[in-house]
Design goal:
Oligomer: single chain
CATH superfamily: Outer membrane protein transport protein (OMPP1/FadL/TodX)
Protein name: Long-chain fatty acid transporter
Structural class: mainly beta
Order of helices and strands: HHHEEEEHHEEEEEEEEEEEEEHEEEEE
Keywords: Signal
Shape: elongated
CATH architecture: Beta Barrel
Strand content: over 45%
Number of helices: 6
Strand order of the largest sheet: 1-2-3-7-8-10-11-15-16-18-19-20-21-22
Number of domains: 1
């Protein structure tokens, strides 16, 4: 009989969410290219309620503590010290469609969006110096949020996960079947079996096509501590720089199931098997560092121009992953080994590895036009080269993943626009964000993302409060496994996140 040995897998086999883009995935990739995009993105809900009510269009604005992370030059507009805190509540909805069946998933989460203090050292209007002083700020900000959950299910009359295992095992000698993740577990669970006299060839006695389902849940986020300074020269030129320390935690769990196998050849249920279940868990934690430099120019009281650059973030990351495979047979007699198969469970070893990731820098430019004291309109454009992310590790070879990053992704532009109306002490805001598609493939819809925002606020002499609402929409294609014949199961997912933020600010 087959004897299950403990396995150490270098990369998870059943991790793919690109479907139509599979041809651009280099052989030998472990899936870290998905992390490169995920950790390079910035959430639309980052920042204070004021800035988020404006769609995040703040490159040329100032006077808000969250500019410590986006454009430190904005700190130069402060004339008093400030303490501010912004809690937020996120409502995540995912509608997954597979085989003409639709399922909805929900996940809600309370976060601390920002927390910071700014110490103002301005010289005051009575001083005649061109240099007016500046502000030093320490600010905590949630820059990315991973909370999401989706579930799909439907009947697949084209393939099974067993077909994927058969493709992956092709050409692998029996004495080399170990240490290949879920593929090895499939062998020890008798889902694939060697063909006598044909080395490197496997088949399966399971003939039916299954009903497939899966639940995928992710939690965690990226949080940045910014230590920034912004200065003011002649009330026309504002400059700043800051250091960012980023903490990262990402956890993904999956449970994939196949059951109700139907044998079309015999027009009956497949009598050999009841179900297959695969469980996976992946957790990534680490710390990164970056720097941000900014500049704002105010040639007229009614116009401001801004530019900022955030350097690539260099991360040291650690990951832990586990996986298992359970197969429930219907008392099937396997003649080659003279055994009756019932419930078989195989577990892989706990995998631990460390690696370094460098995510791309971000270049932003913006302009704001003021209507006196009645309000303003602000717009930003941001350039991000997602293909510039890089990995390296002493635990595994990252070459294939780095080539995949170059194949899959490209440079893109993100657009943000917002407006604020001022009515005495009251403020009304609205904004819109359009994220460019990071995928090089023009027929990919998985990168579509946009946000619609709104907000309101009250300004008093020593206190202010702002409210913000952000609705973010995105599309995603997901495949639990990829087949060479282009009949991979593909799930279409529509994600929506509604976030509510409230900022309390105190001046001193």
């Amino acid at each position: 009989m087959k004897k299950l040995t403990k396995l150490t897998v270098v990369g998870m086999l059943m991790v793919c969410s690109f479907g139509k883009l599979s041809a651009q995935v280099e052989s030998g990739s472990f899936g870290y290219y998905t992390d490169a995009l995920r950790f390079s993105s910035i959430s639309s809900t980052t920042g204070s309620a004021r800035m988020q009510g404006l769609g995040g269009a703040n490159t040329s604005l100032g006077g808000d503590i969250t500019t410590a992370a986006s454009n430190p030059a904005g700190l130069g507009y402060f004339n008093r010290s400030v303490f501010a805190v912004t809690p937020s509540l996120n409502f995540n909805t995912s509608d997954a469609t597979f085989a003409d069946e639709k399922n909805s998933g929900y996940l809600n989460k309370f976060n601390l969006s920002t927390l910071g203090v700014a110490f103002n050292f301005s010289k005051g209007d009575v001083v005649q110096d061109k240099f007016k002083g500046g502000t030093f700020a320490i600010n905590y900000q949630r820059v990315n949020d991973f909370y999401n959950e989706f579930t799909y299910e439907g009947y697949n009359d084209n393939s099974s996960i067993i077909d994927y295992f058969l493709e992956q095992s092709n050409g692998i000698p029996l004495n080399s079947i170990d240490n290949r993740g879920l593929l090895s577990l499939a062998y020890y669970n008798y889902l694939i079996n060697p063909v006598a006299g044909q080395e490197g060839t496997y088949d399966s006695f399971v003939l039916g096509y299954p009903r497939q389902s899966e639940t995928v849940k992710t939690v965690g986020g990226q949080n940045q501590w910014s230590f920034s300074y912004g200065g003011n020269y002649d009330d026309k030129i504002y400059f700043g720089a800051g250091l960012g320390i980023v903490g990262l935690r990402y956890k993904n769990t999956k449970r994939y199931t196949e059951n109700s196998f139907y044998d079309f050849a015999n027009d009956a249920d497949d009598p050999t098997i009841n179900s297959i279940s695969a469980d996976e868990s992946l957790e990534i934690t680490g710390t990164g560092v970056n720097a941000t430099f900014g500049f704002i120019y105010r040639p007229l009281d009614l116009v401001r121009f801004g530019v900022s650059y955030t350097t690539p973030t260099i991360y040291d990351l650690n990951e832990i992953s586990t996986y298992s495979l359970t197969t429930n047979y219907n008392n099937f007699y396997y003649e080659p080994e003279d055994t009756v198969l019932n419930v078989l469970t195989s577990d892989g070893d706990l995998l631990e590895s460390s690696y370094q990731m460098t995510t791309p820098g971000r270049l932003s430019a913006g302009v704001s036009v003021f209507a006196g004291k009645n309000g303003f309109v602000s717009a930003d454009v941001e350039l991000v080269n997602y293909s510039g992310a890089r990995l390296r590790s002493s635990d595994f070879s990252a070459n294939a993943d780095n080539r995949t990053i170059e194949n899959l992704y490209k440079s893109t532009l993100n657009y943000r626009v917002g407006a604020e109306a001022r009515l005495d002490i009251f403020r009304l805001r609205a904004g819109y964000v359009l994220y460019g598609n990071p995928y090089a493939s023009s027929d990919s819809s998985t990168g579509n993302k946009q946000s619609v925002t709104a907000g309101a606020g009250i300004r008093l002499s020593n206190f202010y409060v702002d409210l913000g609402i952000i609705n973010t929409f995105s599309n995603q294609n997901y495949s639990p496994y990829i087949l060479a014949n282009n009949v991979s199961p593909e799930v279409s997912i529509k994600n929506r996140t509604t976030s509510g933020l409230i900022t309390f600010g105190f001046t001193f």
